[in-house]
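Worked example

This section walks through a single chain of length 310. The input is the sequence exactly as stored; nothing has been trimmed or padded.
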Amino acid sequence: MTNQLLRRVIRAALEPGRDSRELVLSASADISGLNYAFKEGIHTLYKFKPFATTFDEEVVRQILVDNEIYFARADQLNDKTELQIRHEITGDKSDPATRAALLADLERLMREDSRSESFIRAQLKALETIDLQRAEDEATRMSRERLRLEFPVFSLATKNTEALHWKEYAADFTGLCIHFDSTSFDTTSIESPFAVARRVEYMPARPTIPIPLDIEATELARRVGLTKPLSYIGEIEYRLVVCKGYSAGIKITGQQGKFDGRHIVGVTIGENMCAPQIAKVVAMAQRRNPAIPISIARRTPAGIQISPYP
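Given that input, the structure is written out below as tokens.
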């Protein structure tokens, strides 16, 4: 199967909805059954960040001052197995009806692209004899490569009192954690885009992506960006995923997301952050009106204690 033909086959099974490099993510009106943060009683979500280098400082400044968050691609995440989806052709691959369904779906996609009749006939003829198992394997390979560069995510924690998060993601208490309000959401008037972050699910095996696609955009987002292996089951993580029909109230340009800064409701600094760095965080927080409240996380025999700073 040529790459050109295969891309059209898998387009039916994987479409992140990035028709342009700039879009506004919109919420699905049907939110029943979805594990959004606001539905699960999560009032605040947290983003842990290091704050040691000039680069670290700029990333934090963009969040606290410019109201911009960065959506990471699969190849930028800590777990390199992230977004390693697998395609599965729906139906018995030896059944002529399965091939007929694929041909019909491919023809629909090409007509949506306004392809010429001669082009459509040539592509359909190629699919008439292709080995479907090979096509399924190649679709998986190509989609994984595509997802390495697309379908970015923004991950959040549910607590600012987890020692492992401070150690791994905030450079052993020398960094900080930013608090995002996630309490309220309305499908017509978005109160907080972070309220519709969705909980990551932990599974023994990643769910497959069907060809042809017969699932909604929110389910596609769940299967692609909201599942992780059981080895991570001790974590509680929520994510925003750049996907058509998913999330709300964030304007995406490239991998940057612009949001209403009022949804930042606090900053917690680690106990090992040095005085000059603390001063920089305080200065950023005080540029807001009202100023962002600052607290400090300290290790105690009873666990992590959060108290106001100074």
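What to look for: The longest helix spans residues 132-149.
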